[in-house]
Amino acid sequence: MVVSTAKMNAKQYFQLGEDPPGVRLELVNGEVAVSPSPIPDHGYAVLKLSYILVRHLEEHELGEIYLDIDTLLDDYNVRRPDLLYYSNARLHLIGEKHMKGPPDLAIEVISPSSVEVDREDKFEQYRAAKVKYYWIVDPALQTFEGWELRRGKYMAVGRAQGNKTICLPPFWTWKSR
């Protein structure tokens, strides 16, 4: 759902301040878009995955992971991936109030209201912003999918469902619940 009528740039968007309770705001093609709060399955999947990633990143000193932070993709797009990974070489992009550039890895956990946005809109925006890796987790279907940016296009690098094991860059083998 789009709530603004006049286009704005990322600098103007960042001046809006914090989101109102119960909604998530993003800047999409210069327009402020609002989405509802996540459902419990979504929150659980994000929590579980972040726990695994934090442990792995700290153990191997690979970089940092963040949850749901405004992320500058370009002058007219500010998205909030559910999880964002920045390698050590790109930690300079972590700002005081928002991320100053795209992550190495963006992870989206699908909710019933976000299927099209995550699989189509964000897929294209992350590709255009040169996010090297993109993962999509679907708690309802129990799927885990990964893409890697190669020559400007996302190429599928793995998909698992249920209890299947998957190896996705840039990290390791994943076993879904």
Which features characterize this protein?
177 residues, tt1808, chain A, 6-stranded mixed sheet, two-stranded antiparallel ribbon, 36% strand
Molecular structure report:
With 177 residues, this protein is of the alpha+beta class. It has a single domain (38-175), classed as tt1808, chain A (Alpha-Beta Complex), CATH 3.90.1570.10. It is built from three helices and twelve strands, in the order H-E-E-H-E-E-E-E-E-H-E-E-E-E-E. It has helices at residues 10-14, 40-60, 115-128, and strands at 23-28, 31-36, 63-67, 71-74, 77-79, 83-87, 105-109, 133-138, 143-150, 153-161, 165-167, 173-175. The protein has a six-stranded mixed sheet, with helices on both faces. Strands 1-2 form a two-stranded antiparallel ribbon. The longest helix is centred in the first third of the chain and has 21 residues, at 40-60. The protein is globular. The chain starts with 9 loop residues before the first helix and ends with a strand. The relative contact order is 0.13. The mean pLDDT is 91.
- The rounded Rg comes to 16 Å
Total discrete domains: 1
CATH fold category name: tt1808, chain A
Largest sheet: number of strands, sense, barrel closure = 6 strands, mixed
CATH class: Alpha Beta
Could you name the ranges where pLDDT drops below 50 across 5 or more consecutive residues? none
Mean pLDDT: 91
